[in-house]
Amino acid sequence: MTFAAPPLTAFDASLSRAPLGEAVFDPAPFLRAQASGKSRLELLVRGAKCAGCLAKIEREIARVPGVVEARFNLSTGKLAIAYAGAAERAIAIPLRLRELGFDSGPYDPTEAEIEDRREARELLIALAVAGFASGNIMLLSIPVWAGGDGSMGDGARTLFHWISGLIALPAALFAGRPFFRSAWQALSRGGANMDVPISLGVLLALGVSILETAQGGAHAFFDAAVMLLFFLLIGRYLDRRARNRSRSAARTLLALQAREARVLGPDGAVQVVRVSDIAPGALVLVAAGDRLPVDGEIVAGESALDLSLLTGESAPAPIGVGMRAQAGALNLDGVLTLRAERAAAQSTLADLARLIEIGAQNRSRYVEMAAKAARAYVPIVHSLAALTFLAWWAFGGELRPALLAAASLLIITCPCALGLAAPAVQVAASTALFARGVLVKSPTALERLAEIDHIVFDKTGVLTQGKAVLQNIAAIDPRVLQEAAALATLSRHPLARAVAGFAVAGFVVTEAREIAGQGVQARLDGVEARLGRASFVGAAPQHAETEMWFRKGEEAPQRFTFKDSLRADARETIAALCAEGFEIDIVSGDAQAPVMEVAEQLLIGRAIAEAKPGDKVARLEALRAAGRKVLMVGDGLNDAPALAAAHASMAPGAASEASQNAADLVFQSADLSPILAALRTAKRAKARMRENFLLAAIYNALAAPLAMAGLVTPLIAALAMSGSSILVTLNALRVSVKKGAS
Amino acid sequence: MSILLMLAPAAVMLGALGLAAFVWALKSGQYEDPEGAAARILLDDHQSEIERGG
To answer: 3-state SS string over A339-378?
Structure first.
């Protein structure tokens, strides 16, 4: 069966040439009914950045029939709509947004994201409480320190200590919860992390200070305990915020990929459902230009599939009734009806999912620098504290000074600088990269990236643009090119798209129709013209997959040839990477000839073609066994297992969902230079981190003997702690100051 | 020195007031869209009335 598209009018043609991507999505399945009878709809809108956009979006969307209220969040790009109209009319909203010039997608947060946001909020409140408490206690502490020469009476000092304690105790117990919780989890698993000494130090300092105050003693550490929490919470909050921002930006990219499908109901009516709701056996309609949402068998229609995201193959594959197709393939020309064989969750290929899982497990064994430091640090500090306590008790015979010395040791060596050292660098580096369009998704990604010495590239869509580019422009008469372009605007076939860019106004196109798998036919200024396969225009084919023919009236047919060309800066970037000492491989699923051609152009010595997903992983394993730390850069579904298995991985913003999820970093850019920037920034970040740990170690080595000798007063503790924290933070900021250099 | 019995709690109370104000602002969504808030001040409040002829 051949599907003939209905005649296109010039108006349809202008719609299909909307500058922003593919067809708009249908928001109907994402409407959430509410008690009031209205529904809520949340959309992510891309590209709205100014006050004018905000005003325009809110004003125009509020006018769409059925919309009760529209509120746009300029910071997150989220548009919240209260909707009271019919669900099937809701598509008017994204259509209107498209007319205004904005791409939109459904916003559908996962449980994990809601939890993340809740935690970030909890951290912020804890931070505010700790800030309030440390500020007020400092107001009380300064008179106590100033009156240390005896000008302040003991009664007033004790009063000030009591007031400090009344503020510090509830504040520290509240603001310290994130640390206590994490320390408890680590302890109950039988391990120790940085939060164990923090929690112990804070609790011990509070306890000793209360004892001191009750006995009218001179030294109370309320200020130090709360200030410690305040500094650590700043680091932790900034870290969490930077990560949430990268993650939500990564989500925005994915939300713009289609998540709904058209399913034929038993009565023959077309329903729009979420992709995740497609049941096995359902009949799914896939329009030209859409991706297949599930695995299935074609029951009607004829078309060609672009499998480049699945296999890396650049040439389209023809498909017809009775053939089976995989989810993720892009339908190029005709409308296909697909009988779903598996639900969407299983369709992403059980094998691929399993491979991704194995890779992710490997990586989760990676131990961060901060955790390594904590492992070495915790036992040393704790045994020193125990030693101090025992020594003071044994030789002094009194419990109070012994406890005081041990507590001051824990406070002053408390890893304030250590706890800030890693997050401050992470935040500075990932913010600098974010500004360049690189999203750092995994907390350990930068550290792993800094160790890379070998890079494996996928070809299609990474080194190349992943789309056809017209090659023989010079050989084509400009008039013929413009005529062909006028016809090409009527089709969504990738080859036609590559020509449509040359269209100019002024042609009268009538009786246009697209014949699936063949081409477009129309009357151009009254003369019959055809654009499509060689046989369709009556020419002799020379190379079927990458050519297109045009013929107007009785003129000689004109051949157009296409090739997937390299990204603009591929050569420079690869050369720069080689110059910096990285070994480079290509591992592609595409055929031998195109892979070798790219390898030659880029002067890459090692290239493997026709690699299946398992072969890619095997190649990475072989490199790993040889002691290499490999960065995998890939975009296809077939790359996802390799991305998960590599030491670190990057995916471009146009990559498949599975690849973006498996990759540590996602770069949104038309060129490859972000890879270089990310590697350089990661190296610099790791150097700063190492310096910060060194600074913290030196500081602790100086401070610990003082504390063990019982010479640390609360004043010294407060000064040492803020001094080292500021030093570490300033050093971390050097990462972002230099960002212009890379 | 007994003035301290008044002043110290008063200072703490003022601080606590600031904290309460911050927590209230956070919970009522004032920090949800800082960029939008900055932009909205530039918008003409009466736009819809003008369009309606009011």
So the answer is: EECCCHHHHCCHHHHHHHHHHHHHHHCCCCHHHHHHHHHH
- Nearest of A632, A593, A624 to residue A609 by alpha carbon: A593
Among candidates B8, B11, B39 on the partner chain, residue whose Cβ is nearest the Cβ of A54: B39
Contact check, Cβ <8 Å, A75/B32: yes
A590 noted as active-site residue: no
Q: B19: distance to nearest CA of chain A, Å?
A: 6
Q: Which residue has the higher pLDDT, A111 or B11?
A: B11
- Choose the catalytic residue: A26, A223, A290, A458: A458
User: Is pLDDT at A414 greater than 90 in this prediction?
Assistant: no
Q: Is B14 in the A-facing interface, judged by CB distances under 8 Å?
A: no
Quick one: tokens of A429? 């580096």
Is the CATH number 3.40.50.880 carried by domain A438-465+567-682?
no
Residues A224/A134, Cβ–Cβ less than 8 Å? no
**A739: amino acid identity, one letter:** K
Contact A230/B at CB under 8 A: no
Q: Which domain holds residue B7?
A: 3-52
- Residue A626 confidence (pLDDT): 92
Q: Give the closest of A73, A125, A153 to B26, CB-based.
A: A125
Q: What average pLDDT does this structure show over A572-580?
A: 92
List chain A residues with CB under 8 Å of B4. 156, 159
From A408's Cα to the closest Cα of chain B, the distance in A is 26
pLDDT tens-place string over residues A471-488: 888 888 888 888 888 888
Which amino acid is located at A614 in the chain? G
The residue of A163, A244, A248 whose CB has the most chain B CBs within 10 angstroms, and thus the best one to mutate to test that interface, is: A163
Structural domain total, chain B: 1
- Say yes or no to pLDDT of A741 above 60: no
Q: Enter the ipTM.
A: 0.77
Q: Per the CATH hierarchy, to which homologous superfamily does domain A467-565 belong?
A: Calcium-transporting ATPase, cytoplasmic domain N (3.40.1110.10)
CA separation, residue A486 to residues A227, A627, B9 (Å): 69, 55, 80
From the CA of B53, how many Å to the nearest CA of chain A? Answer: 16
CATH number of A6-108: 3.30.70.100
Q: What percent of chain A has pLDDT over 70?
A: 89
- Do the Cβ atoms of A54 and B15 come within 8 Å? no
Residue A301 makes CB contacts below 8 A (sequence gap 6+) with: A1, A3, A320, A321, A334, A335, A336, A337, A516
**pLDDT value of residue A352:** 61
Burial class (CB in 10 A: 0-12, 13-18, 19+), A453: middle
Query: What average pLDDT does the segment A79-90 reach?
Result: 87
